[in-house]
Amino acid sequence: MILAEINELFAYNIWANNRTLESVAQLSEEHYFADAKSSHGGIHGTLVHLFGAHKVWLERWQGKSDAKLIHQHEIASLDEIKKLWAELIAGTQQYFENFTEEKLTATYTITTTKGEVFIHTYTQMFQHLINHSSYHRGQIAGMVRQLGYKPLGTDLIVYHRQK
Q1: Backbone dihedral angles phi then psi of residue 27, each to the nearest 5 degrees
Q2: What is the mean pLDDT of the chain?
Q3: How far apart are CA 107 and CA 103, in angstroms?
Q4: Cβ neighbours of 101 (radius 10 Å)
Q5: Rounded CA separation 63/65 (Å)
Q6: H-type helices in the chain, by residue range?
Q7: SS3 for 149?
Q8: Are the CB atoms for 147 and 27 separated by under 8 Å?
Q9: End-to-end Cα spacing for the chain
C-alpha cells in the first residue's frame, strides 16, 4: 500500500464512523443504552469500544506504552462520545501530517492491553484499525435494524460513490 491509499482508508473510516453516529442519533435513549447481548453489550458499549480501540492505537503510535481501553461506563452519553471522537479524529489527522511513505513498511513493537508483545508494520496496524472499525460498525448496524430503525450505509463503495 502507499500512503495515499492509507489516507483514503482513514478518510473513509471517519466518514463511516460519522454515519454510524448519525444512525444511532435517531434512537431513543432507552434503545441506545439497551443491552443487546452483543460482544460489548449494546450500541453504546460497541461505540465506546470502537472509539477506545482507535484511541489506543493512536496512543501506541504516539509512543505511549501504557495505552488502555476505555470502558463504556466512562462515557455517559452519545453527545459525549461525539465530542471525544471529534478530538480523536483531530489527533489522528495531526499524527498523519508528518507520516512518510517510507514509514509504512517500518516495524513497530506494541504491547497489547493484555500485556502481549507483537511487532507489526504500520501498514498492518492501519489496515487492522480500519477492518476492526468496519466489523463493529456492522454489529451496530445490525442492532439498529433489530430495533426497527434503518442505519445509513457505511460500505466503502458507498463512500466512493458519494465523494
Answers
A1: -80, 155
A2: 95
A3: 8
A4: 11
A5: 6
A6: 3-24, 29-33, 43-61, 78-97, 122-146, 156-162
A7: coil
A8: yes
A9: 21
User: Low-confidence residues of the chain, pLDDT below 50?
Assistant: none
Grid coordinates of 13? 473510516
Cα separation, 110 vs 60, whole angstroms: 7
Give the torsion through C-alpha atoms of 66, 60, 82, 31, to 10 deg: -70
- Give the chain's largest Cα–Cα span: 48
* Residue pLDDT, tens place only, 6-38: 999 999 999 999 999 999 999 999 999 999 999
Do the beta carbons of residue 68 and residue 4 sit within 8 Å? no
Specify the pTM. 0.94
Cα 103 to Cα 27: distance, rounded to the nearest angstrom: 42
